[in-house]
TrEMBL record:
Pfam families: Cation_ATPase (PF13246), Cation_ATPase_C (PF00689). It is a multi-pass membrane protein. It comes from Paraglomus brasilianum. It comes from the Eukaryota. It is found in: Cell membrane. Residues 349-519 form the Cation-transporting P-type ATPase C-terminal domain. One of its GO terms (cellular component) is plasma membrane. InterPro entries: ATPase_P-typ_cation-transptr_C, ATPase_P-typ_cyto_dom_N, ATPase_P-typ_TM_dom_sf, HAD-like_sf, HAD_sf, P-type_ATPase_IIIB, P_typ_ATPase. This is 412_t:CDS:1.
Length: 529
């Protein structure tokens, strides 16, 4: 932190008055207020606040961009208004300037000499100083005062004809994790925009430090009077939006949502609360203001911003695995509906006993329990995805009938080759049930590895160990159960050896057909999961 006069020379008066302003304000103290108070106490041994008491204050708002306190001296009962805020807004209410060089805070905290009107030359010096400091990435707060008469109430109108004493300068560096976190977000096609109440020059400098690509910079005045279409266009193309009010932040978030973007907003201040609430995913931090945390959907407990990228990746993995499960189940059930419908029309007996069907579903569901721990292909994680019922319906119609083809093939094979066509032949009926139980269970389980990736399974993309183990366990169980004593309870019989020769051909053909359908689906619809 620095404290300077209008020429850029060290002057303690801005620090002293800035300290009194920050110390006596009753509103929420921001980081700058805390920095001023701590810095003053470290710089001086005398606490000047004990010589004053607060009479009133004019709270900060995001239009005036300044706040004021009215103090009364314990010694001579004189009253003073001390105001601090953004340089441009402070200059608008200052008519005089202190040009003295007295750096001793014990002398003339509220000077009566060395005060002159602000001339165009002085105004240019102040603006040049502010611009130079902003270009260095420093935040500048101007401090001013004036003597007050007895008054029962104070208003914004009293913030006029002030005497500028100088500026307090702060360096608020980006978090060390900001740059790597930004690169990770860009890697995963997350576009980053900065919505801030700070100066556009300061914001640009900080963004350059973290290598954020800047397309354009927009200030609050450029947003005034725009209709929805114009605001959407500016919100789409802008990178930095500076000197914004809380409502303008929320309006930009809303405009991006109307452009069909999914918008997350990270903020920790009162001014961020409307935008946090308006966003699809509001994010705040553990040390943020209460209203920001209350408005947020997620509160970060770690100080590292890398948790944002980690959260996005984890979210995409979770979403991808969820879609896997939904598409696996819905396509399998859709195919089974066709198979049961045809079997009901054609066969003179039930294609499978209810107990066998329940067991098949339980085993298949067990193979699905490991899906939440499955891996996603790196290519899938690069781009954000949206929930689409149409995509699921298309997947169901394309992939579902593949299983029905081989179910019907098994019906025909068992009906004619093994003569399982007499409802009175109890053994042949059980043989048919067992054959379809094994074929249905194993094909459904094997297809997990086909559906889980758009690549060639086991060659270009391998499932996680948990998925491999559960599917292998289910396949082994499906083959072994008919040969165990449980077969009597389940109404099954051991399968003949030649059936497994036939079944091997079914598995190879089924996987080949589904892989071919996958290629066509990706070609036509440019997606798989």
């Amino acid at each position: 932190m620095k404290y300077l006069d209008y020429l850029g020379d060290v002057c303690k008066l801005p620090l002293c008055l800035g300290y009194l302003n920050s110390y006596f304000q009753t509103g929420l103290k921001n980081l700058l207020d805390e920095a001023v108070i701590e810095f003053f106490k470290n710089e001086t041994e005398t606490d000047i606040a004990q010589h004053f008491f607060q009479v009133d204050e004019i709270p900060f708002d995001f239009v005036r961009r300044r706040m004021s306190v009215i103090l009364e001296s314990n010694q001579d009962e004189q009253r003073f208004l001390i105001s601090k805020g953004a340089v441009d807004e402070m200059l608008a209410c200052c008519t005089n300037i202190y040009i003295g060089k007295d750096n001793d805070p014990s002398n003339a905290i509220f000077p009566t000499t060395d005060i002159v009107p602000i001339t165009p030359k002085i105004l240019t010096s102040i603006k040049n100083l502010n611009e130079r400091l902003n270009n260095e990435g420093l935040r500048v707060i101007a401090v001013a005062f004036k003597r007050m008469n007895e008054c029962s109430a104070f208003t914004v109108a009293d913030e006029s004809k002030l005497t500028l004493v100088g500026v307090c300068v702060f360096y608020d560096p980006p978090k060390p994790s900001a740059k790597p976190a930004l690169q990770e977000l860009l890697k995963y096609n997350v576009e980053v925009k900065v919505l801030t109440g700070d100066s556009p020059v300061v914001c640009r400098k900080v963004c350059e430090e973290i290598n954020l690509p800047i397309k354009s910079i927009v200030t609050n005045t450029e947003l005034e009077g725009l209709d929805d279409a114009q605001l959407e266009e500016i919100a789409e193309n802008g990178t930095i939006f500076a000197k914004l009010t809380p409502l303008q932040k929320a309006n930009i978030v809303s405009a991006l949502k109307r452009r069909n973007h999914i918008v997350g907003f990270l903020g920790d201040g009162i001014n961020d609360a409307p935008a946090i609430r308006e966003s699809d995913c509001g994010i705040s931090v553990d040390e943020g203001t209460d209203i920001a945390k209350e408005s947020a959907d997620i509160i970060l407990l770690e100080k590292s911003l890398m948790v944002l990228a980690d959260g996005i990746v984890r979210g995409r993995i979770t979403y991808g695995n969820t879609i896997k499960y939904i598409k696996m189940v819905i396509s399998s059930n859709f195919g089974n509906v066709f198979s049961v419908l045809i079997a009901s029309i054609w066969l003179p007996f039930l294609p499978m006993d209810p107990l066998q069907l329940i067991l098949q579903n339980l085993l298949y569901d067990f193979s699905q329990t490991s899906i939440p721990w499955d891996k996603m292909d790196p290519e899938y994680l690069i781009s954000p995805r949206r929930w689409s019922a149409k995509s699921i319906a298309k997947f169901m119609v394309f992939v579902g009938p593949c299983s029905s083809i081989f179910d019907i093939t098994t019906f025909v094979f068992m009906f004619y080759y093994y003569q399982c066509n007499n409802p009175d032949d109890h053994y042949k009926v059980q043989l048919f049930h067992t054959a379809w139980f094994v074929e249905g269970l194993l094909t459904q389980t094997m297809i997990v590895h086909i559906i889980r990736t758009s690549k060639i399974p086991f060659i270009q993309s391998t499932a996680s160990l948990s998925v491999c183990l559960t599917t292998f366990a289910v396949i082994c169980s499906g083959i072994i159960i008919p040969f165990t004593p449980l077969n009597r309870v389940l109404g099954m019989v051991p399968l003949p050896g030649f059936y497994f020769v036939y079944f091997l051909g079914v598995i190879i053909s089924y996987c080949s057909l589904t892989s071919f359908v996958k290629v066509l689906f990706v070609k036509f619809f440019k997606e798989w999961l």
